């Protein structure tokens, strides 16, 4: 069950005293926050609802809000955001005395108050107050979604937006969004603007959605491995014209070859795709593509290429020549080594 499925189960008429939303995936956390505000029908005009950004608000006022009675309503809803005291951030909002007062509220919540806490990042599980919160609160952890969960959520979301997108097109959307929830949502908005009505095809996706830098470097890597020198140099030139720095391109290219080397090495040791994915902590789709690519490559070629790229990085940063020229020479060298 995803965090969004959990939020969907909240009954506004039967709210629990304590809710704790936390996690390191900012895009998921932001969406979860929005959904829970919609679920409780939050309005800044409602005198029985308070949103408090603890990084900006007075701590005494924040505590008083917990103890205030609701206006013309059965319950008062208080939302704390940026409650650094319970996170691993080296910051604090409350004094020790105020934190003890807050802990007293956690021990004995007021029947007429619902507290929703939103924490950006990890909880400090060593703190007593955090242990109590985790025992007494309904917890929502903002973790990155699995591919199947991400696909389902975005298909549901696209349906709510009035969009008609097939499972095949959704898979392509996820690939072009690097399986990032935030980027996939932005790309859905782009597609909605492009095609408000009718079915969205894979062709529509390829036409509308811009390639990420990682996509372009992946294409560059494939061109080099197939000896397509002219296309590779043309792509690099386009990226430089767009404002990309050669050192950044070199860094990502080196990362690609490092991944290929790791995958090839683990493959030779008899590891399956699932095992390699688990060991490298990289999305299964990237591992699948890498396994297809390295099938015709030797460990010797990959290790030499990595060595050459690292050496090139040193030469550029040491001022041994024009970076664009040096990168161009290395690109030609890699492509020619694959033609032989």
TrEMBL record:
Enzyme Commission code: 2.7.7.7
Keywords linked to the UniProt accession: DNA replication, DNA-directed DNA polymerase, Nucleotidyltransferase, Transferase
All residue ranges annotated as the DNA polymerase III delta N-terminal domain in the record: 19-142
Family: Belongs to the DNA polymerase HolA subunit family.
Pfam families for the chain: DNA_pol3_delta, DNA_pol3_delta_C
Domain DNA polymerase III delta subunit-like C-terminal: 214-333
UniProt-recorded name of the protein: DNA polymerase III subunit delta
Species whose genome carries this gene: Floricoccus tropicus
């Amino acid at each position: 069950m995803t965090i969004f499925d959990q939020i969907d189960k909240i009954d506004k008429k039967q709210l629990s005293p304590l809710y704790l939303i936390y996690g390191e995936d900012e895009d998921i956390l932001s969406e979860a926050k929005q959904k829970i505000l919609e679920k409780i029908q939050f309005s800044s005009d409602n005198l029985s609802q308070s949103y408090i950004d603890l990084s900006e608000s007075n701590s005494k006022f924040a505590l008083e809000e917990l103890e205030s009675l609701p206006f013309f309503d059965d319950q008062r809803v208080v939302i704390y955001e940026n409650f650094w005291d319970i996170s691993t951030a080296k910051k604090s909002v409350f004094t020790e005395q105020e934190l003890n007062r807050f802990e007293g509220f956690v021990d004995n919540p007021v029947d007429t108050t619902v507290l929703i806490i939103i924490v950006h990042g990890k909880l400090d599980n060593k703190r007593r107050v955090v242990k109590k919160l985790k025992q007494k609160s309904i917890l929502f952890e903002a973790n990155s979604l699995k591919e199947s969960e991400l696909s389902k959520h975005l298909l549901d979301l696209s349906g709510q937006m009035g969009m008609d997108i097939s499972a095949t097109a959704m898979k392509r959307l996820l690939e072009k969004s690097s399986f990032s929830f935030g980027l996939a949502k932005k790309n859905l908005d782009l597609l909605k603007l492009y095609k408000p009505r009718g079915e969205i095809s894979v062709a529509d996706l390829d036409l509308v959605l811009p390639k990420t830098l990682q996509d372009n470097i992946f294409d560059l890597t494939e061109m080099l491995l197939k000896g397509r020198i002219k296309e590779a140099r043309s792509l690099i030139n386009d990226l430089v014209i767009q404002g990309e720095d050669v050192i950044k391109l070199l860094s990502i290219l080196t990362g690609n070859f490092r991944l290929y080397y790791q995958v090839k090495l683990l493959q030779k040791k008899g590891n399956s795709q699932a095992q390699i994915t688990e060991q490298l902590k990289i999305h299964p789709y990237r591992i699948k593509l890498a396994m297809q690519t390295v099938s015709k490559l030797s460990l010797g070629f990959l290790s030499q290429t990595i060595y050459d790229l690292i050496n090139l990085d040193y030469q550029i940063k040491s001022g041994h020549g024009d970076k664009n020229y040096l990168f161009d020479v290395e690109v030609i060298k890699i492509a020619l080594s694959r033609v032989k």
